[in-house]
Specification:
The complex is a heterodimer of chains A (316) and B (655). Chain A has 316 residues and is an alpha/beta fold. Helices cover 39% and strands 19% of the residues of chain A. Chain A folds into 2 domains: 37-118 and 249-312, Periplasmic binding protein-like II (D-Maltodextrin-Binding Protein, domain 2); 120-241, Glycine betaine-binding periplasmic protein, domain 2 (D-Maltodextrin-Binding Protein, domain 2), CATH 3.40.190. The chains are: A alpha/beta (316), B mainly alpha (655).
Chain lengths: 316, 655
């Protein structure tokens, strides 16, 4: 009986409270346009997210494309060129292995030129350490400090912390060929690396590790790069014999062959897209540090840089 | 779940205690010889392989993978078989999504809005279980909206439901078959082991090759991990149906089908529902992994937040997964426990259906009931609070915890790893096979020998031994905590009520959320990996032990107390020995769960097999090595599983 009364009361309340307020409207007819459906891969780091956000924003607002962003790791994204699930990858760090497989052998991807962003890979130390022991910034002095970098994982030698296996690393060969008393310890993820550097700076503990820029962490902790023997063309040809620093990377865009051949507005936008490290860093900062949504960050940047955006748009 | 399908006949032999003592001596002897030889032969024949080095087997796996990728468009298997599966699953998931999660049918919102879903969840929970869990379910789902994660939660729920429904459609019939046929059971058990232990990183990339990037791949990745529990438990339920009832039914002339539907299935119902429950839990555990291949929902929120180490936001999303898991768990458990008597009257159900339908209609029609009001959002406050708490813990505890890590690594992990990984491979293999023979059985020894041989063949012996060392340490820690907490929970209802939600959280909170503070506390190290594995494995082991301790008959405990035993004596002399089987099963499950975390360990500095798998997922030329590492993890799992089972059966027989 109580339940029944309750039910009746509930219906009454719902009836009174419910039938007010705006109703759900039908969607307006789709805004098709000539651009069609643009499938953009988003690889899991913030710099990439910045590129993708701006390209997606321009494609939607200026070209009327229907943009689908897909969150994927690199290998899976490249694989998507073949199955037609991915049209474009808009920040590629070298990846000679993937180039060989998908551009040269399977011929399902093509390069769409530079993003204008320069990538650096190398060995870094937290700023406090660089300040206190400036000679550390030269690899020749590393052995003197090996003892200081010892951890529970490095078995008596100094620890060189490596991170996300997505990036090419020559560190084991480097340590061996430069005769360093260090052991490469695989942190295994970007999360592990960032956390390690952040904490090393906070708690003033020694740390040396593999890192790269552009990366949003630099807006918070200005890591200093350790100088290794300079990179010369061909010095990294034989993997086991590498004894030189990493080359600078010209970060580029890779698109599916079908997408390039169709030569639609979205492809032309991707091909024309170019900006600078500073541009990317500011957008990445808005996303990572100021916690803006990628869409909002892209909108702000596009509104502040109409000329740059104009140069990317297809000529009609 | 691995060990549940074993039943043993207990035959008590008077001389057993002597045999047991001798066995202990023999094992000690084997270990002594091992250590002695280790001192002499340390560092030889260790089969170590450098980070980028590959073996023939790895190259062969690579070529296989490339061949599949290159032949995708012309292969009839793809064109007809896989594509039809993909289309079917895609349609199904999109259908579920369009009802509760995604804008659909030309509307900016899904068919049923939050208000309708909350009402439906409450109604269904009440109809299948009771008023208490219905209230819990309603409150839980309302909380998801308050967290500001309604859309994401519904995406996750849609995908989980789809994966669970398909798992059940396939899994229950297979489980019944495995329950009725010994041969099929033997055939399917290793396959299920494989599905449960094989790290999902290994098959994520190939899955997108077979089923493209989209709902189908995400669903299949989820169900590979989630289907085994329901298959195992259904088989177990059928197998443990009382023999005399089955015989009575058969002697009365029932057909096989009649026996199945009238006797076996009703008798197995509780166990099957437990299997459904475990399948739901497992499916939710895959949410973050599936996000790596673009599965929509809460997993994405977690993964994105961690790119910027935003623990607060990741925690908020993780909490939503935990809430959903607890709701689904309590509802299914209550549904399984409810007898026929407690069912609500049909007329009352119909009366309650009316306002539910009205709520659904409202959420279809009105904006306020369709979209959760974002001004009610408490998610950002939860995020800030969790972020602050993490920062505090990190900056205040890190010096102490790092010291703890160093000591443990020095006295426990390093020596064990040195003995396992620095001994010649043949010495380790011989010792392990000999121990399997002594504490287990001839069968266990053969399984160990085969697994070890295959590990050698995988080219990753050294990494496997490093991983094995961490696995053993993690399992020991897990069992210490599980026995303490399990006994406490088993003895006190109140403790159970407080601890159980914590355990649920440990099981379903995405590891990635607490890895960040763990990294701060213990740095990138093997210890961090062990700590994460312990958090994940303790819940299941604790629950099993608590169940076992509670199962000890009350009269026995009372008799012990009446005869003047102290609490300590009651626990150690009565309750623990009498739940020995539960402890054995808990150890076994603890091991399997620890192995499930090997890959996560690879992400936080444990190196070895876990890192090999992660690297294989990230770099094309290392794919083959990653696959080999995945297989090596499965081999370790199967070996340890069969060994602990054999040992448990033997001690059980020994009394």
């Amino acid at each position: 009986m109580v339940k029944r009364t309750l039910a009746v009361a509930l219906v009454a309340v719902l009836g009174l409270a419910g039938c007010v307020g705006p109703k759900v409207a039908k969607n307006q007819a789709g805004s098709g346009g000539s651009c069609g459906h643009f499938k953009l891969a988003v690889n899991p780091w913030v710099g990439y997210e910045a590129n993708a956000a701006v390209i997606a924003y321009v494609a939607e607002k200026n070209l009327g494309c229907r943009v689908t962003k897909k969150d994927l790791k690199e290998e899976v994204a490249w694989q998507g060129f073949g199955t037609g699930e991915v049209d474009a990858v808009v920040e590629n760090w070298g990846h000679d292995d993937l180039r060989k497989k998908y551009i040269d052998e399977q011929k399902i991807g093509v390069s769409a030129g530079s993003t204008g962003v320069k990538g650096e890979i190398g060995w870094y130390v937290p700023p406090w350490l660089a300040k206190q022991h400036p000679e550390l910034l030269d690899w020749n002095n590393l052995n003197k400090y090996a003892e200081m970098f010892r951890t529970s994982e490095s078995g008596g030698q100094g620890q060189l912390l490596d991170g996300d296996p997505s990036f090419v690393t020559n560190d084991e060969a480097l340590v061996k060929n430069l005769g360093l008393n260090f052991k490469v310890v695989y942190g295994g993820s970007e999360t592990a690396l960032i956390q390690a550097f952040r904490q090393a700076e906070e708690r003033r503990t020694p740390l040396i590790g593999y890192f790269y820029s552009p990366q949003w962490l630099f807006t918070e902790v200005k890591l200093e790069r350790v100088k290794l023997p300079a990179h010369t063309p061909g010095c990294d040809e034989v993997a086991e014999k590498i004894a030189c620093d990493y080359p600078d990377y010209d970060l580029d865009k890779i698109v599916s062959r079908k997408f390039a051949n169709a030569n639609g507005p979205a492809y032309q936008l991707v091909r024309n897209f170019q900006w600078t490290n500073d541009d990317q860093n500011i957008v990445a900062r808005w996303i990572a540090v100021d916690k803006m949504s990628p869409e909002a960050a892209a909108k702000r940047w596009v509104e502040q840089n109409p000329d740059k955006v104009k140069a990317w748009l297809p000529v009609t | 779940m691995v060990a549940t399908s074993r039943t043993t006949v207990s035959t008590r032999l008077p001389k057993m205690s002597i045999v047991v003592r001798n066995r202990g001596r023999i094992v000690a002897g084997i270990l002594a010889v091992w250590l002695l030889l280790w001192l002499v032969l340390r560092g030889t024949h260790t089969l170590a392989l450098g980070g980028a080095q590959l073996t023939t087997v790895h190259h062969w796996f690579n070529d296989l993978n490339d061949a599949i990728g290159a032949g995708r468009d012309s292969n009839p298997l793809f064109l007809y078989f896989f594509d039809y599966i993909r289309v079917g699953i895609d349609e199904f998931v999109v259908f579920v999504q369009s009802i509760i999660a995604q804008p659909s049918f030309d509307r900016p919102v899904p068919l049923i809005g939050w208000f309708g879903v909350v009402a439906l969840v409450g109604f269904v929970s009440w109809a299948v279980a009771n008023v208490r869990v219905a209230l819990l379910a309603t409150a839980g789902f309302f909380f998801l909206g308050l967290q500001g994660l309604w859309r994401e939660s519904m995406d996750t729920l849609a995908l989980t439901l789809a994966a669970v429904i398909i798992s059940l459609l396939v899994g229950i019939p297979l489980g019944i078959w495995a329950g009725m046929s010994d041969r099929f059971n033997r055939l399917v058990t290793p396959v299920l082991d494989f599905m449960q232990i094989m790290p999902s990183f290994v098959y994520l990339a190939p899955l997108t090759l077979f089923f493209l990037i989209g709902p189908a791949s995400a669903t299949i990745a989820t169900l590979i991990y989630a289907a085994p529990p329901v298959i195992r438990l259904t088989a177990h339920g059928i197998r443990s149906a009382p023999h005399d009832t089955v015989e009575a039914s058969e002697s009365l002339g029932s057909t096989r089908t009649q026996t199945l539907t009238k006797v076996l299935l009703p008798a197995a119902k509780r166990t099957i529902v437990l299997g459904v429950n475990q399948t739901i839990m497992a499916a939710l555990a895959m949410v973050t992994i599936a996000a790596l291949i673009d599965a929509p929902g809460l997993g994405k929120t977690v993964v994105k937040a961690l790119q910027t180490l935003d623990v607060g936001t990741a925690f908020n999303a993780g909490l939503a997964i935990v809430v959903m898991a607890i709701v689904l768990d309590r509802v299914t458990t209550a549904a399984a426990d409810r007898g026929r008597r407690n069912r609500p009257y049909r007329i009352v159900l119909w009366l309650a259906a009316l306002p539910t339908a009205f709520a659904v209609w409202l959420s279809y029609t009105y904006v306020w009931a369709a979209e959760f009001d974002s001004s009610l959002d408490i998610g950002s406050r939860i995020a800030v609070w969790a972020g602050d708490a993490t920062t505090w813990v990190q900056s205040n505890l890190a010096p102490v915890t790092n010291g703890v890590k160093d000591v443990f690594t020095l006295v426990l992990i390093d020596p064990l790893q040195s003995v396992l990984a620095d001994s010649p491979w043949w010495l380790v293999a011989a010792a392990v096979v000999a121990i399997s023979l002594v504490v287990g059985s001839v069968r266990a020894a053969i399984v160990s020998a085969v697994c070890l041989a295959l590990i050698v063949l995988s080219g990753l012996w050294s990494d496997s031994m490093t991983t094995l060392a961490s696995t053993i340490v993690a399992t020991v820690f897990t069992m210490i905590i599980a026995v303490l907490a399990g006994v406490w929970m088993g003895r006190s209802r109140r403790a159970d009520r407080v601890i159980r939600p914590v355990l649920d959280a440990g099981q379903t909170m995405p590891v990635f959320v607490y890895l960040v503070p763990f990294l701060a506390l213990f740095a990138a190290s093997r210890f961090t990996a062990i700590a994460a594995a312990v958090v994940y494995a303790v819940p299941v082991a604790t629950k099993i032990i608590a169940d076992g301790v509670r199962g000890v008959s009350g009269t026995t405990v009372e008799a012990s107390v009446a005869s003047g035993s102290s609490t300590w004596q009651t626990i150690t002399k009565v309750q623990l020995p009498m739940s020995a089987r539960a402890v054995a099963l808990a150890t076994n499950q603890g091991l399997i769960y620890v192995l499930c975390m090997v890959v996560v360990g690879g992400l936080v500095g444990a190196g070895a097999l876990g890192y090999d798998v992660v690297a294989g997922f990230s770099q094309g030329q290392l794919y083959g090595k990653g696959l080999a590492a995945g297989i090596a993890i499965v081999l370790l799992g199967v070996m340890l599983d069969r060994l602990t089972q054999a040992a448990a059966n033997r001690t059980h027989r020994g009394g």
